[in-house]
Design brief:
- By secondary structure, this protein is α/β, with parallel strands linked by helices.
- The chain has a single domain, classed as Metallo-beta-lactamase, Chain A (4-Layer Sandwich).
- The chain is built from 5 helices and 14 strands.
- It has a 6-stranded mixed β-sheet with strand order 1-2-3-4-5-6, covered by helices on one side. Strands 7-8-9-10-13-14 form a 6-stranded mixed β-sheet.
- GO terms for molecular function: hydrolase activity; metal ion binding.
- Its cofactor is Zn(2+).
Length: 208
């Protein structure tokens, strides 16, 4: 069974997820955002097998450098955003100087692509390429738990007005991939509260 702990990090209240399986001392982290001190306190004594990034905007990768160095763990990111971790213009941290300093870290160790299955913490994570909010946005499905980044929110969708965003791609990702999942799949978004695929398919005003 997947155990999920959520941390709201940084000025944009980004959801970072600490996931563990049968062994509570082995975990992975999805989207370690800015100001990750609270998350770091809770991984003391743990082995972190990987950091998975749904995409490389600054509010989702602000804690990567600190955690990767602390835990010596690899980072996974879609190949279309392979340059974003090293470039503050691409990751957006130059756009909001009142919110974030320019952020950079080393490139990801591993590329992500549509249809991959990652075997981590004794569980399988299927990778869905879900562009639209950003070109390399991905969602991760483990059993009936979906981590959607900034693609699908509770009664909302990700913005498409940032560099590399595209509205048509976003709706294709949601309707063509995420909404084909079962109703009971729980959605853990990059911001805001949890929802389900069934609820969003029926009630989300942006994609109804």
């Amino acid at each position: 069974m997947l155990n999920i702990r959520n941390y709201n990090l940084g000025p944009l209240q980004t959801n970072a997820y600490l996931l563990t399986g049968a062994d509570p001392k082995r975990g992975i982290i999805i989207d370690p955002g800015m100001n990750p001190a609270g998350l770091i306190r809770n991984i003391e004594g743990m082995e972190i097998e990987a950091i998975l990034l749904t995409h490389a905007h600054f509010d989702h990768m602000g804690g990567v450098d600190e955690i990767r160095k602390l835990k010596n763990c690899p980072v996974y990111l879609h190949t279309l955003e392979s340059e974003w971790l090293t470039n503050p213009k691409l990751n957006g941290s130059l756009m909001w100087p009142n919110v974030s300093p320019p952020l950079t870290t080393d490139p990801a160790e591993f590329d992500l692509a549509e249809g991959q299955t990652l075997k981590l913490i004794g569980m399988d994570f299927r990778v869905y390429h879900t562009p639209g909010h950003s070109p390399g946005s991905v969602s991760f499905l483990c059993g009936n738990d979906l981590f959607s980044g900034d693609v699908l929110f509770r009664l909302g969708v990700g913005r498409t007005d940032l560099p590399g965003g595209r509205e048509r791609d976003l709706f294709d990702s949601i309707r063509g991939k995420l909404f084909k999942l079962d109703d009971e799949v729980k959605v853990y978004p990059g911001h805001g509260s949890r929802t389900t695929i069934g609820f969003e398919r029926e009630r989300n005003p942006y994609v109804s």
